[in-house]
C-alpha cells in the first residue's frame, strides 16, 4: 500500500506542476502574452527562446518574473506541497503544525530565489548580455 501511495504522490506532483503551468499560460494569454500551451513539454533552449519571442520589446524584469517566479517557482512549489501533503497524510500519518508551514514558506522563498537567478542567467545568455555586466 505504501508504494501505491508513493506512486500517487509522484503522479500528483507531476499533474499539479503541469496544470499549474497551463493555468499560468492561460493567465498570460489573457494579458496578451502568447505563450504556447506546449511550453512545459519543450526542451530547455527552445522553451526560453519562445518565451523571449513572446516578450519581445518588454523589460528584463517581466521576463524574470514570468520565467522565474510564475513558470518555475509557483508550479514547482504547488507540486512539492501536493506531494508532501499526500506523503504526510497517507504514508506517514503525521499532522500539520507551525513547523510545517514555516518550512513550506522557506521552501517557497528558496525556490523563488533559484528561479529568479536562473531567469537572470538565461536572459543574459539568450540576449547576448555579457555575464559580468550589471
Return residue spans where pLDDT drops below 50 for at least 5 consecutive residues: none
Secondary structure category: mainly alpha
The total count of helices amounts to 4
Radius of gyration: 17 Å
How far do the termini sit from each other? 53 Å
Short description:
This protein has four helices and no strands. The protein is an all-alpha fold and 134 residues long. The chain has one domain.
Care to describe what's here?
With 134 residues, the chain is mainly alpha-helical. It has one domain (2-127). Helix content is 77%, strand content 0%. It is built from four helices and no strands. It has helices at 2-30, 44-54, 60-92, 98-127. It is elongated. The termini are far apart.
Features:
4 helices
What is the element layout, followed by pairings?
Blueprint: H1 2-30, H2 44-54, H3 60-92, H4 98-127
Helix pairs in contact: 1-3, 3-4
Amino acid at each position: 500500500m505504501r508504494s501505491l501511495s508513493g506512486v500517487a504522490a509522484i503522479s500528483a506532483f507531476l499533474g499539479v506542476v503541469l496544470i499549474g503551468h497551463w493555468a499560468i499560460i492561460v493567465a498570460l494569454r489573457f494579458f496578451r502574452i502568447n505563450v504556447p500551451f506546449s511550453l512545459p513539454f519543450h526542451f530547455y533552449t527552445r522553451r526560453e527562446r519562445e518565451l523571449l519571442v513572446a516578450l519581445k520589446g518588454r523589460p528584463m524584469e517581466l521576463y524574470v518574473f514570468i520565467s522565474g517566479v510564475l513558470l518555475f517557482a509557483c508550479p514547482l512549489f504547488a507540486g512539492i506541497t501536493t506531494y508532501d501533503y499526500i506523503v504526510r497524510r497517507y504514508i506517514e500519518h503525521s499532522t500539520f503544525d507551525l513547523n510545517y508551514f514555516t518550512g513550506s514558506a522557506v521552501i517557497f522563498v528558496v525556490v523563488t530565489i533559484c528561479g529568479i537567478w536562473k531567469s537572470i542567467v538565461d536572459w543574459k545568455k539568450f540576449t547576448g548580455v555579457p555575464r559580468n555586466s550589471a
